[in-house]
Design brief:
By secondary structure, this protein is α+β, with helices and mostly antiparallel strands. Helix content is about 50%, strand content about 10%. The protein has helices at about 5-20, 40-45, 65-75, 85-95, 100-110, 195-220, 235-260, 265-295, 295-300, 305-320, 325-330; strands at about 115-120, 125-130, 140-145, 150-155, 160, 175-180, 185, 225, 230. Belongs to the acyl-CoA dehydrogenase family.
């Protein structure tokens, strides 16, 4: 596939996504959809679930670039579904497609009929904290951290979810999950699913930043102070320009990592950790400063900037960043090895 063809396909997918999500207009008021599942079949028809599934299993191959673009658009739209986890789950299930239960669930995901959340089991093997999409998902794929394998829970009767501790991000539903002993089905290691999950969460945050930065720039051109738009003042111009440069930098490191899914695993891990650290460190600071730049209106519930600031904080928590990314980079570079 040529670069031109791939770019054209990405542009077509982006326009189709924006049309379905209703974000193809200018300066639309951010809204939170209470029922994300009602829109999911229409999104699944665009092939979003198949982007990182091998072609022999009904997917499009490992199109991490398209998945990253999709995650950014869904973040910009405040879409509440667990796209990062669902895509990572589909990718991991494809590695175990020989398992009949995994194969059946994967087929349901590709058809838009099933939603599988992705998370991490704690040391006790029973509790998974902060799982995006529960309640709402009808299957769970949990990383068994000590062994590196996966536990599949294909029946909602096999777990209980408590969303009460995680209401900070009102655009999504996250919960702590307690699984029933013996209800899980062990699957092989996750392959690149963890890297894909973390990268898509970073892309989601990038989409949030870009959407709010565009709105802030438009607002600076309209809001008057002392008889001129506030965007005409150098102090405002410089801060917006700095944020635009940082946002572009985050976009580039995420795209660069997406292009390495066929590369050496260590190079991919390093690139994803770099992208995750870059985004999780910068995105909340940019959005917080945009609150200041937009003045009193930015602090109102109706303007919606706070919805994006909450979401990028939650993206970092879901991916266990930025501390986990710092540790991962330190380990990859050998900085944690004590000299003798």
């Amino acid at each position: 596939m040529t670069t031109t063809t791939a770019n054209d396909e990405l542009l077509q997918l982006r326009e189709a996504l924006r049309g379905t999500l209703g974000t193809d207009g200018q300066d639309l008021q951010p809204t939170v959809a209470a029922d994300w599942r009602s829109m999911w079949p229409a999104l699944a028809e665009l092939g979003l679930t198949a982007l990182c599934v091998p072609e022999p299993l009904g997917g499009f191959g490992l199109r991490a670039d398209a998945a990253v673009m999709t995650a950014a658009e869904l973040g910009a739209a405040l879409y509440g579904g667990p796209y990062a986890g669902l895509t990572a789950s589909a990718h991991a299930l494809a590695q175990a497609a020989g398992d009949p239960v995994a194969g059946e669930l994967l087929a349901g995901i590709l058809a838009g009929e099933r939603v599988c959340a992705f998370g991490r089991l704690g040391p006790d093997g029973r509790l998974a904290r902060l799982v995006d999409g529960v309640p709402g998902a009808d299957a769970l794929l949990l990383l068994d951290q000590p062994g590196g394998g996966l536990m599949l829970f294909a029946d909602p009767d096999g777990w209980t979810a408590d969303p009460a501790p995680h209401g900070f991000d009102v655009s999504r539903t996250c919960g702590d999950v307690t699984v029933s002993p013996g209800a899980g089905r062990p699957l092989p290691p996750a392959g690149q699913a963890v890297e894909l999950y973390e990268l898509l969460l970073a892309a989601d945050a990038v989409g949030c930043v870009r959407r709010m930065l565009d709105r802030a720039v438009a607002y600076a051109g309209q809001r008057q102070a002392f008889g001129r738009p506030i965007g005409g003042f150098q102090a405002v111009q410089h801060r917006l320009a700095d944020h635009a440069v940082r946002a572009q930098g985050m976009t580039l490191v995420v795209r660069a990592a997406a292009g390495l899914f066929d590369a050496d695993p260590a190079a991919l891990r390093r690139a994803v950790a770099t992208a995750a650290l870059s985004v999780s460190s910068a995105a909340p600071l940019i959005l917080h400063d945009l609150l200041q730049l937009t003045g009193a209106i930015g602090f109102t519930w109706e303007y919606g900037l706070h919805l994006y600031e909450r979401r990028v904080h939650q993206d970092a928590r879901l991916a266990a960043n930025p501390r986990a990314a710092q540790r991962s980079l330190a380990e990859l570079e050998g900085w944690t090895t004590h000299a003798h």
